[in-house]
Amino acid sequence: MSIHPYHNLGDVQLLSVDGTILVADSWRLARSSSFFAGLFDLPPPISGQASSHKDLLSLLDPVEVDFSAEVIDLFLNLINVSKPSIPSSAFPQTLDLLELCDKYDVNENIQGLVRDRLLMQVEDRQWQLLIWSGKRNDILMAREALRRMPPHSFIANTTYESSRKGVLMPLWHALGKLPQSWQLEILRLAFIPINLNTRSGVKSYQFEVTGDWDSVSQKFTPK
Predict the structure, then answer these.
(1) Which of 36, 99, 156, 178 could form a disulfide with 182 if both were Cys (CB 3.0 to 4.6 A apart)?
(2) Beta pairing class for 168-169 and 63-64
(3) How far is CA 138 from the centre of its chain?
């Protein structure tokens, strides 16, 4: 195990999945997260007084946090300032950071900043966000992905497994990564029938991809 070069002061040790210890202030963690507030059962410290729990907390084993040191670092950077701002994180780290916020019940102010960052990064990644949302059954975030889904991205989507833009996979392969109810709902909403009058008195129907993805987003209610 190694100690993080910056987050190395405080009364609580957080152990990342990649074996790095990040040290933090228990009261900052408790103030920003219901999970940590319950874990430490700590009120915010009174100005000018040391926490009465500090010595006891220093005896605890490191708290195992199921995320990389890079993601925990982003989280601590958000909670250690008086006015947190939208984090500067790459798309995969933003996804992980939002999962951390959800898992540890981080307050809505912090979560909102992370969501803002995620939505800033959606361009050409609508399918990645949609598949990620499906794994979490996050319908609200799925609607955000659908709202930003142009027809060409829906048909020729960039692969979820690769961060490289321009690598394509079939539409049906992407749909197959979603929950079945999501697949059916997207097919119902994304394809609209068009009437082809091939000859007098005979109607032929085909389907085309909708251009109204705001409507798809609003109506997306998988069972």
Answers:
(1) 178
(2) unpaired
(3) 9
- Amino acid in the structure at residue 215: S
Mind listing the pLDDT tens digit for each residue in 172-205?
888 999 999 999 999 999 998 876 666 666 666 6
The least confident of 41-50, 62-71, 179-188 is: 41-50
The answer to whether 166 and 158 have CB atoms below 8 angstroms apart is yes
Q: Are 68 and 94 in contact (CB under 8 A)?
A: no
Q: Is 105 left (phi over 0), alpha (psi -120 to 50) or beta?
A: left
Q: Which CATH superfamily is domain 2-120 in?
A: Potassium Channel Kv1.1; Chain A (3.30.710.10)
In the chain, % of residues over pLDDT 90: 68
The token pair at 105 is: 């019940």
First to last CA, the chain: 45
In this predicted structure, what is the pLDDT of residue 41? 79
Can you say whether the dihedral through the CA atoms of 13, 31, 113, 87 is positive or negative? negative
Domain residue ranges of the chain, discontinuous segments joined by +: 2-120, 126-219
At residue 105, the 3 state secondary structure works out as coil
Q: How far is CA 60 from the centre of its chain?
A: 30
Give the contacts of 214 (CB within 8 A, at least 6 positions apart).
Answer: 147
